[in-house]
């Protein structure tokens, strides 16, 4: 068995590799934003066998960068979750690796019940246990037609650890 001090020593001196992530088959970069765009769809950080994904705010945007399901909160939420799923898959992980979400709703009073129903059904279908930590916030979103945007953090091992 490896001592905790050895693990901490290894992590403390391990190189940190990072790169932008995307999945153009699911959603594209924000074409409507001024160029150059000042963010990545997400950031992948690799640290000595531990990978952390920081997924930027993701919404109901299609592969052409167009907002879809205008006016339909539930359909926008489903597309948003599908987009995040595609980003996770492009990096070799799943919703089981999500540790935190931040959920931004344009009108939390109107849409929270639908949001919670959709999220609960989706997480149940994924078989998530434990559930990710999460925060729900009312916010003005980057496009007026968007009703929901979700950020996510995933963590997973890319190398086997000694037992």
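Q: What amino acid sequence fits the structure above?
A:
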């Amino acid at each position: 068995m490896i001592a905790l001090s050895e693990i901490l020593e290894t992590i403390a001196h391990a190189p940190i590799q990072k790169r932008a992530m995307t999945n153009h088959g699911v959603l594209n970069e924000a074409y409507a934003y001024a160029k150059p765009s000042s963010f990545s769809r997400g950031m992948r950080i690799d640290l000595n066998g531990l990978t952390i994904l920081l997924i930027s705010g993701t919404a109901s945007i299609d592969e052409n960068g167009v907002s879809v399901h205008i006016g339909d909160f539930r359909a926008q939420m489903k597309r948003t979750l599908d987009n995040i799923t595609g980003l996770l898959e492009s990096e070799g992980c799943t919703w089981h690796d999500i540790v935190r979400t931040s959920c931004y709703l344009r009108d939390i009073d109107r849409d929270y019940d639908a949001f919670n129903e959709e999220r609960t059904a989706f997480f149940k279908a994924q078989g998530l246990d434990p559930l990710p930590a999460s925060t729900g916030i009312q916010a003005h979103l980057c496009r007026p037609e968007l009703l929901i945007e979700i950020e996510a953090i995933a963590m997973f091992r890319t190398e086997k650890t000694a037992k």
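Q: And what stands out in the fold?
A: Helices lie at 4-13, 73-90, 108-126.
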